[in-house]
Amino acid sequence: MCFFGEGALGQGVLYEAMNLAQLWKLPVIYACENNCYNEYTHYSETTAGDIPARPAAFGVAAESVDGQDVRAVYGAAAPLVARARQGQGPAFLLCNTYRFRGHHVGDISRDYYRTKQEEQRWVSERDPIGILAGSLIEEHLADQGLLDRIHAELTSHMDAAVESALAAPYPNPAEVDQDVYA
Ligand SMILES: Cc1ncc(C[n+]2csc(CCOP(=O)(O)OP(=O)(O)O)c2C)c(N)n1
Ligand SMILES: [Mg+2]
Fold first, then answer.
1. In a shared domain, residues 8 and 64
2. Is the pLDDT of residue 28 over 90?
3. Residue 4: strand, helix, or coil
4. Residues with CB under 5 A from ligand 2 (ion)
5. Domain of 22: which CATH number?
6. Same domain for 90 and 139?
7. Cα(93)–Cα(16) distance, rounded to whole angstroms?
8. Which of 38, 108, 123, 178 has the most neighbouring CB atoms within 10 Å?
9. Residue nearest ligand 1's atom 8 by CA
10. Which ligand 1 atom is at minimum distance from the Cα of 103?
C-alpha cells in the first residue's frame, strides 16, 4: 500500500514508479488521498486534467471512490488488493476526501485560502463517522443505542489517555538525542 496526498501527484518520481510497477506487475496499491489541499493551495490550482487518467496512461487499473464512506472505500479497495495478490499488477485508488483542519497546528485561521462555510459543510454533511453510522442504521446493522454506547466507551478511553499523558512526568532532557544518529 502506498499512501500519498494529491499534492504528490506533482512529483515526477511517482510516474516513474508507476511505470515500472506496471511493467513488472508489482503488487502495489497507490492510494491517493485527495483532501482538496496541497498545504495552502486548492488542488485545482496545481493539478491539470483528470487524475485517474494518469495511472490509466500506464495501464494501471484506476478507481475513484467517496473517501468519506468507509464501506465504499473497502468495497473499492478489496478487488484491487485481490488482483494485486494474484499477480495482476498495481492499481490506483483515488479517495476523494477533505482536510478538516489546518495543514499543521499553526495553520489556524485558513481564511486566506478557504472559507469557513466550506469547512462547515464538510464537517456537518460529509463526516465519515456520521456517514458510516447512518449507513449501519439504515441497513439495520446497528441501532442508535449501540452507537451511543460505543461513543461513550471511546470517549472515556480517550479522556483517560489524555489524563494519563498530562499526569506523566516530563522526559529527562538528557534523552533528547537518544536514538538520533548523525
Ligand atoms: C518537493 C517538496 N515540495 C514542497 C514540500 C512542502 N510540503 C510539505 S507537505 C506539502 C503539501 C502536501 O499536500 P498533499 O500531498 O496533498 O498532502 P496532504 O498533507 O494534503 O495529505 C508541501 C507542499 C515538500 N515536502 N516537498
Ligand atoms: Mg492534500
1. yes
2. yes
3. strand
4. 5-6, 35, 37
5. 3.40.50.970
6. no
7. 18
8. 38
9. 39
10. 19
The atom of ligand 1 lying closest to the CA of 43 is 16
Tens of pLDDT, residues 123-147 = 999 999 999 999 999 999 999 999 9
Question: What's the number of domains the chain is made of?
Answer: 2
Residue 76 identity (one-letter amino acid):
A
37 pocket-lining for ligand 1 (C-beta < 6 Å) = yes
The residue behind cell 506487475 is 25
The closest of 86, 90, 119 to 102, measured between CA atoms, is 119
Which residues, at least 6 apart from 4, have a Cβ–Cβ distance to it below 8 Å?
Answer: 14, 30, 31, 32, 33
Residue of 13, 11, 6, 3 lying closest to 43 (CA atoms): 6
By residue range, what is the domain housing residue 46? 1-100
Distance CA 166, CA 170 (A): 9
Query: 3-state secondary structure string, 18-77?
Result: HHHHHHCCCCCEEEEEECCEECCEEHHHCCCCCCCHHHHHCCCEEEEEECCCHHHHHHHH
The residue whose grid cell reads 533528547 is 176
pTM for this predicted structure? 0.89
- The sign of the CA dihedral 64, 68, 71, 77 is positive
Cell of 159: 479522556
Ligand 2 centre distance from Cα of residue 34 (Å):
5
